[in-house]
Specification:
Rossmann fold; 37% helix; binds adenosine-5'-triphosphate; binds magnesium ion
């Protein structure tokens, strides 16, 4: 069987600057992939390219065995890829529950979510996700009133609510303290098995808590792939990335 996602020799050129060079990787259904690398390594560009916001200048991207390289972003989303951005995408005046319901609406006509009764099935799924993200106590609170970490978890919940097969999470722990970071790792691990997740992050304590197959990007190229322990032990990774990451944490 073909993998859920396959990047084949993907190159992205921004007017002569190669943000990605000959990147190939595969991700199986319901599996976890961690993507790390220094600032400017091309991590967000990789997500942009998968979702169709940036077009590769060479190579191709296959999703469920079909080329999606030239498809419009909306069509790629429809096929089952959902992306969480570095900046929050929650609707601040709606409650936590309403945000989940809006995101789970299949027809994406979110304004209709409040003019028609919510089907029991959608309600049940939203309740289930509420529990997954641990915000049961915050169910009816306007999203604007959530703490920073809670906003990030709600956003992950909104991505989950789309029922996409592949979730792209770009720096979900940005601005979080150690406790919230650990909780985020547990949340992401609880999604594996139902969704494939490609998660980008800088925080090595988070990466270690996830403890999954990791790809290290450096200057737009894959420097190393392997378990977190293998990445940790690699001299080249240490030189370009881990030494710096340790300084950042300290
Ligand atoms: N639209 C664009 N046009 C030109 N250059 C771009 C564009 N988008 C990104 N870049 C450049 O491509 C490189 C990779 O950027 P990208 O945002 O993918 O890095 P990143 O690994 O996500 O970094 P960070 O850890 O800071 O989020 C950077 O040098 C960036 O300046
Ligand atoms: Mg980025």
């Amino acid at each position: 069987m073909s993998p859920l996602l396959a990047l084949e020799n993907v190159t992205v050129d921004f007017d002569g600057f190669k943000a990605l060079t000959d990147v190939s990787l595969t991700l199986e259904a319901n599996a976890l992939r961690i993507l790390i690398g220094p600032n400017g390594a091309g991590k967000s560009t990789l997500c942009d390219t998968i979702i169709g916001r940036v077009r590769p200048t060479a190579g191709r991207i296959l999703f469920k065995g079909e080329a999606i390289t030239a498809l419009p972003e909306q069509e790629i989303v429809k096929r089952g890829i959902c992306r969480k951005f570095q900046t929050p995408g929650i609707l601040p005046s709606l409650s936590v529950m309403e945000n989940l319901l809006v995101s789970g609406r299949k027809n994406r006509a979110w304004w209709r979510a409040f003019t028609t009764a919510t089907p029991a099935q959608e309600m049940a799924r939203a309740e289930e996700i509420l529990e997954t993200i641990g915000l049961q106590d915050r169910r009816d609170v306007p999203a604007a009133g959530l703490a920073h970490g809670e906003k990030q978890w709600l956003e992950i919940g909104m991505v989950v609510a789309t029922d996409a097969d592949l979730l792209l999470l770009d720096e979900p722990t940005a601005g979080m303290g150690p406790q919230d970071t650990q909780r985020t790792a547990e949340l992401i691990l609880s999604l594996i098995g139902r969704h494939a997740v490609l998660v980008i992050d800088h925080d090595m304590s988070f990466v270690e808590a996830l403890n999954g197959f990791t790809t290290v990007l450096h200057q737009g190229q894959i420097l190393k792939e392997g378990s977190v322990a293998e990445i940790r032990a690699d001299a080249a990774v240490e030189a370009v990335y881990l030494g710096r990451a340790k300084d950042e944490v300290a």
